[in-house]
Specification:
Elements (H helix, E strand, L loop, with lengths): L3 H41 L3 H15 L2 H20 L6 H31 L4 H38 L1
Helix pairs in contact: 1-3, 1-5, 2-5, 3-4, 4-5
Amino acid sequence: MTGKGEGRAVTTFSDVVLMAALVAAGLLAGLFYAYACSVLPGLARGDDRTFVEAMRGINTAIVNPVFMLTFLGAPILAGVLVFLHWGSRSLPWVIAGFVCLVVTLVITGALNIPLNDALETGGNDYAAVRARFETAWVRWNVLRALLSTAGFGFLVTAALTRRA
C-alpha cells in the first residue's frame, strides 16, 4: 500500500522530467528556428568562401557537451515521459512530442550531418561546395525547426492537459 507521500514523489519526479523535457525541446526548437530565420539568411548574403568557412566553423563549434545534452536530452526525456504518463490523458501529447523530437534527431543524423561532413571534406572550390550543400541543408533545417517546434508544442499541451 502506498501513502500520499509516495504518490506525490512520483508526480514530482514526473513534473521534473516534464519541465526538463520542455526546456530541452524549447532550446532545440529555438536553435533550429534561429538558424532558419537569421543565421542561414545572413550567411546567404555572403560570398561562397565566407559561407563555407562560417558553416565549417559552426559545425565544429556546435559539437559540444551543452548542445549534445540538449539535442539528445530532449528526445530521451520525452521518451521517459511516455512511460511516466502511461495511461494518463496527456499520453497522446507526450507521444506526439516524443515522435517529433526523434524524427528531428533522425533527420539530423541521416541528412544534415552527412551534408556537414561533405562540406568539411569538400575542398576549397567554395562555389561548388556551397552549391552541393546550401539548398539541401536549409531545406532539412527548416523541417527540423518545424518538427522540434511541434514537439515542444505537444509537450506544452501535455503539461497543460495534465494540469486540467
